Amino acid sequence: MLEPDMNFLKRFFGKIESPEEAEFFLNSASYILFLIGFLQSILFAFLLGSFRNFYMDVLLLFIFGIVIRFSRSRVSVILLCIYSLIILVGTTLTWFGIAAGGGNNIFLAFALLLLSIRAAYVSFQFHNLIGTKLIWKNFWIRHLIALGFAFVFSFSLFVSFILISKLLGITEMSSLYGEIIFESLPISYILLLLPGLPWVKERRMYTGSKIIS
């Protein structure tokens, strides 16, 4: 049992020398994000009873895991690094009593940041190993399309909440609705960059020895 575990750790933390090793790490990192999100959802929902306050953190972890697993987007891992840094700062401020509303596990937040930095490094190394070149025209078109659809979706949610509130006679909107509207823009934007969508298939962003979306 110990030898397979050591082989896994060696492949996970070892030097990346081939595209297969890079993909192994990125896939493993996505599974770790799924696991962290799953464990956090159980912790918040059943043990702390405060899942409502942290549901967006869990959702973002799942989304980043999906994007890293099915796409080798360097933008996604950069966003993951920024998100992890924000989580660590918020958790640190809460840990020292400077602010409230952040997480409580500073060690997990630090580990998440290290994982995201490593994932970003491996993602860039993966593209270097397979010799991909960015097609800037398709890059901007895909991102603009995704951003446009994300904005329309977020704005539609906002209008829908307003109309439903008026229909039901609700004069004050819950902060939960505001969070959903606010977070729907980046979440839908990231998901709309996944491979398999029509404008993604027609506009590949990379050329190289191993063509990826």
Uncertain ranges:
none
- Indicate the overall shape: flat
Strand order in the sheet with the most strands: 1-2
N- to C-terminal separation? 37 Å
Mean pLDDT: 78
Q: How many β strands by DSSP?
A: 2
Helix fraction by DSSP (H/I, runs of at least 4): over 70%
Beta-strand residue fraction: under 5%
Keywords: Membrane, Transmembrane, Transmembrane helix
Describe this structure in words.
- The structure is a single chain.
- With 213 residues, this protein is an all-alpha fold.
- It folds into two domains: 19-130, no CATH class; 133-213, no CATH class.
- The protein is built from eight helices and two strands.
- It has helices at residues 2-13, 19-48, 51-70, 74-95, 106-130, 136-168, 175-191, 198-202; strands at 133-134, 206-207.
- The chain has a two-stranded antiparallel sheet with strand order 1-2.
- α2 packs antiparallel against α3 (51-70), α4 packs antiparallel against α5 and α6 packs antiparallel against α7.
- The mean pLDDT is 78.
Task: Give the topology.
Layout: H1 2-13, H2 19-48, H3 51-70, H4 74-95, H5 106-130, E1 133-134, H6 136-168, H7 175-191, H8 198-202, E2 206-207
Antiparallel strand pairs: 1-2
Helix pairs in contact: 2-3, 2-5, 3-7, 4-5, 6-7
What attributes characterize this protein structure?
membrane, 77% helix, transmembrane helix, transmembrane, mainly alpha, 213 residues, 2 domains, two-stranded antiparallel ribbon
